[in-house]
Amino acid sequence: MADKEIGDLTDGGAVQAGDLVHAVRGPNSRKVALGTAAGKAATEFATSAQGGKADSAVQPGDLAAVATSGDYGDLDNLPTLGDAAGKNIGTTAGTVAAGDDSRITGAAQKASNLSDLASASTARTNLGLGTAATVNVTISTSDATGGSDGDLWFKVS
Fold first, then answer.
1. Neighbours of 19 (CB within 10 A)
2. Which pLDDT tens digit goes with each residue over 34-57?
3. Is residue 125 within 8 Å of residue 115, measured between CB atoms?
C-alpha cells in the first residue's frame, strides 16, 4: 500500500483502507468525517449492474400524476361521462338503479316471485321445460295396487 496524505487524494485517486488509516494518523493529520456508509460491507450496496437498472427504470417524475395519486381529476384527456357516473348505486331517487330495483321498467321483481311475468307459458318454454312442469302429482306411501309399503306411487291428475 502506498502512503498518501489526505491532501494528495483527488476524485480519481485510488484509496485503500491502509491509505485512509495513514492519512488520518499521518504527520499532516486532519479530522476526517465519515458517514454511516463507511461502516457497511460492500455487499450492502448496489452493484454497477443494479445501478444501471435503477438509472434506466421509470422514475416517478416520468409518470402521469394519476399514476401516483389515483385521482380521476389527474387524468389527461378526461372522457365525457354522463351524470350517472357521479351517482351512487341505490334504490331511492338520485341514485343509479341496480339489480331488483323497482325503478327498472319491465324487470321482474324478487318480491313478486315470478308472478309479474307477462306469460308463464312463454317463460317455461324459454327455460326448456316440458309438459311435466304443469302436471299435478300426488305422492302416496300406502299400498296402491299391491306394491310394498314404502313404495312411492304417482297419480297423474
1. 20
2. 677 777 888 888 888 888 888 888
3. no
Which residue in 1, 4, 2 sits closest to 24, CA to CA?
4
pTM score of the predicted model: 0.30
Q: What residue spans define the domains of the chain?
A: 6-56, 59-116, 117-157
Q: Are 98 and 89 in contact (CB under 8 A)?
A: yes
Give just the sign of the alpha carbon dihedral 42, 43, 45, 46: positive
Show the cell assigned to 31.
Answer: 479530522
Identify the helix (H) or strand (E) that includes residue 51: helix 48-56
Number of helices followed by number of strands (H, E) in the chain: 4, 2
C-alpha cell, 85: 357516473
72-126 pLDDT per residue, tens: 888 888 888 888 888 888 888 888 887 767 777 777 878 888 888 889 899 999 9
Identity of the amino acid at 71: D
Going by the DSSP 8-state scheme, the letter that residue 128 receives in this structure is T
Dihedral of alpha carbons 32, 35, 38, 42, sign: negative
